[in-house]
Each structure stands twice: as C-alpha cells, then as structure tokens.
Amino acid sequence: MAVDDDTGSENTKPQKSAWSVSRLNNEIAATLESAAERFPTYVVGEVSDATAKGYGTFFTLRDVDGEETIQCIVWSSYRDRIDESITEGEEVIVRANVDFYAEGGRTQLNVKNYWPVGDSDRSQELEALRAELNEEGLFDADRKQSLPPFPSNIGIITSLTGSAREDFRESAWGRVPGVTLTFFGATVQGKNATASIVGSLQQADRDPDIDIIVVTRGGGADDTLWCFNEEPVVRAIADCATPTVVAVGHEDDETLAEAVADKAAMTPTDAGIVATPEMSTIRERVETIERRLQIGYETVVSEQLDALNRRIENAVVGLERAAETRQARIQRAADLEQRIDTAYTTLTASRLDAVDDRIETALQEIEHAAETEAVTVRAAQGRIGGLETRIDRAYETHITQETEALERRIESAYRDIETDTDVQEAKQEARQLRIVILVLVGLLLLGVALWAGGIL
User: Fold this and answer.
1) Which domain holds residue 182?
2) The pTM is what?
3) Structural domain includes residue 218
4) What residue intervals traverse the membrane (predicted)?
5) DSSP state string for 37-105
C-alpha cells in the first residue's frame, strides 16, 4: 500500500507543475514583446509561397545563403501603401517587427514596408545618417528642450490645404480656446518638400513671438514621408532655438525628424494635445495651489499672531518688571535722600558746633592777644617815648654840630668869597648854600621820622 501511495504521488507531480499551451504561448509572446529592442528593424531574404488575401498577404522569407525560413504577413493597411508588388523568388528587404501569434503558436514577421534589394540603397543611406546623427548626440535626451507649459503663440508648419491644419486647430483650441496659432505654409511631400520645410522652420524660429514650433502632416506611405528623413530637415529641426514638436502621422516607424525633435507626437491631433496645457488640469492645480496658499496663509498668520501675542506678553511682563524696578529705585532714592538729609543735618550741626567752638576759642585767643598787645603797646609806647627823647636830643646835638660846622664853613666861605670874588656873587652863593642846607635838614628830618616809624 505504501508503494502504491508513493507511486500515485509521483504520478501527480508533473500534472501540477505543467503549463497549459495557452499559458506557454502567452509567456512566449510576452517575452518576445519585452525583448523587442533586441530584434532588427530590417531583414533581408528571398520571397516564396506568397498568398494574397483580402485582409493581407502571407509569404515566406528564406535566408539567401541557407534553408532557414520565417513566415511573414503584410496586413492590407500597409500593403496598399507599398509601391512595389510582392514577387516570389525576388530578394527583398523588409521593415518589420517580430510578432508571435499566440493562438496558432507561430512566430512571424509583421511587415510594414518592402523593397527589392536593388532599391535598398535608400534604406542604407537612412541608417548611415541615423548612425551619424546619433554619434553627434542629436538624439540625446539631455539636449532636448522642455516645452513651455503655457504657450501664447504656437507656430505650425504644415500644408495649408491638408486636413492636418484643421485637426491641429480643433485639438489645440479644444484645450486652450483662443490660443494664438500662426501657420507657416509648407510642402510636406514630394521633391520640393525639403526646401519648403527648412525655409518655414527658419522663418518660424526667427519669429520672437513663437513659443513652440510644430511640424506636422497627415499619414502616408514611407515614400511620401521620406522628406522627414532628409538631412537638411533633420538638422534644421535640431538647430531650432525654439522648442519643437514633430507629428507626421506615421505609426509604424519613427522618422529622423521625430527622433531629433524636442517632442514627438503621433498625429496632428496628438500634436495639439502635446503643445497645449489641459485647462481643466490647470484649473485643478490652481485650485489646489489656492487651497494650499490659503492654508499656508492661515497657518503663517496664526503662527505670526501667536508669536506677536507672545512678544506682547513678554513686553508687558518686561514693562511691569521695569516699572517695579523703577519704583524700587525711586524708593531707594527717597531712602537715600532721607539718609542724606539726616546725615547733612547731623554733619551741619556738628560742624556748626565745631565752628562755634573754634570761634569762641579764637575770640578768647584774640582777647588774650589784645590784652597782651595792649601791654606790649604800652611798653612800646614807653620805649618809643624814651627813644623819641633820645632821638630829639641826638638830633638836636647833631643839628647843632652840623649847623655850627656849616656856619663855620659859611663864614670861611664868606671870607673866601669876600677875598676872591665879588661880594654879590658871594651872597648869591651863600643863598644857594642855605637852600642846600635846608634841603639837607629836610632830608635828615624825613629819615629820622621814617626810622622812628619802623621802630614803632
């Protein structure tokens, strides 16, 4: 029994882990789709077993140097735009993407265009130009300009007679009614398309009022869209200082003009959407910003009011403290004034008492000195009296002696005068001598008086 149980368990394990065909095919399809960039855009081979049906043409593409094959299909929407017919036994280049048909479990090429090998030089030139532009960095994302979010004037380069003009106008005005659209007429297919598009691009780029340049046209086959792969057109778009949008209505493969533009769109209608802002979205953003501003304003105002209230409260507290400090200082000043008054009164009284004592002492000393001086004066007066008497006596004695001597001299002089000169001259000289004597006597008296005063 145990063996049977184990055997039964082993038999059920593959069943639980096995995938269904549907799951397997879906996984294969998803894997191929996620790795699409690993597959080439162009494949060369020999056509065989071509079968045309209403919805498309099936054929087998065989390796030129071997027996390997892959199934191909061209849907009628692309087949009708291909100029060349699909001929068995012909070596061709196809532009296609790898497709996996999950319901039938088949891998096939979904063909978008088709050229006999003799006509493949154009494709090679395109790939060479693509490689050159890529090496120059014209496809780099960091060189692409951002479109202005709110353009006021959009320049459109397109045919003035095609439907692309109206499609773009309807799309743009549907989003931003009344935005200025400036159309620059250009030929968008044929031999003259390259020069016409380049001229319109340069004209629009020189216009300072143009905010965005849109290059657009409706869909078409590869041949009719080839002008958007021409090097002059591609480089003119790359050289534009004004942001550019390219939409050529080709869903299958990106043109070089789209690759080098700042923004690519699928159709003229899509270009109108890409080049203009969505007004409803803008209104929502404006309303959101207004709400945020209102909330921010209320928050800021509330915070500022709270801060202001705190500052006012702190200021009031500070003023109250300052008032208390001032009152305390006033009280201290009053106390100090009282102490000063008391000290001043005490000091003044003390000093007045001291002054009174000094005055009393000075008066006593003065009285004593006066009494002493009086005694001294009386003694001095006595001495002066005796001195005066002595001076008078000495003076009289001196004067007498001087007078007697002078008289003797005068008499001698008279005698000499009488002897030697005229009597009148002698008298005159005698008078002069008397005057001199009187002056000398006066000076002598003055000197005595001054000497007596110095003694007193």
Assistant:
1) 131-277
2) 0.45
3) yes
4) 435-455
5) GGS-SEEEEEEEEEEE-SSEEEEEEE-TTSS-EEEEEEEHHHHTT-SS---TT-EEEEEEEEEEETTTT
